[in-house]
Design a protein that fits this description.
This protein has 2 domains: 81 residues; 46 residues. The chain is mainly alpha-helical and 171 residues long. Helix 2 packs across helix 4.
């Protein structure tokens, strides 16, 4: 147990450090794997693969002197198995990278939507405040009516009080 603590591995779920250190650019590996995965999903690749398989089978059946892979085509099967063994992890790596990009994009969209919602709520509150303020402002029609009433009062003969201010006539 003291050997494990000396190595820095105290628990079973802590991975051991490897003696071999490979320095590689994970981003470059990801870009290459995405380009390969993109190519494997094209019609061009399927056409090339089909042509290679047809030529392979044709040469191994017809050309008696060139039969490097007789009828069960075990070498061709091995080539397909090897290709599938490399293609599957590359496709998974490309999918994981796309998932990470989608996650970042989704987080940005969420934050942008939250900001837009906050801005919209702020503008709605400001608009409501403006509507309330406009409701308290005297309108042109209201002022015109009031001025007409005052003009009518001034034009009518009426009594004046002791300070000389005219009073409205009694009705």
């Amino acid at each position: 147990m003291s050997d494990r603590t000396a190595l820095g591995r105290q628990r079973l779920e802590t991975p051991q450090t490897s003696r071999f250190r490979f320095n590689y650019d994970a981003e470059a590996v990801g870009r290459v794997s995405e380009s390969i995965a993109r190519f494997l999903g094209t019609g061009r690749y399927l056409a090339i693969q089909t042509i290679v398989v047809v030529v392979w089978i044709f040469l191994n059946i017809v050309a008696v002197g060139l039969q490097w892979d007789p009828y069960p085509f075990i070498l061709l099967n091995l080539a397909f198995s090897t290709q599938a063994a490399y293609a599957a992890p590359l496709i998974l790596l490309a999918q994981n990278r796309q998932e990470n990009r989608d996650r970042v994009s989704l987080e940005e969209d969420r934050s942008r939507a939250e900001q837009t919602k906050a801005d919209t709520e702020f503008l709605a509150r400001e608009l409501a405040a403006l509507r309330l303020a406009v409701g308290e402002v005297a309108t042109r029609d209201y002022l015109r009516r009031e001025l007409d009433d005052i003009k009518a009062l001034l034009e009518e003969p009426g009594e004046t009080d002791e300070s000389g201010v005219r009073r409205a006539p009694r009705r």
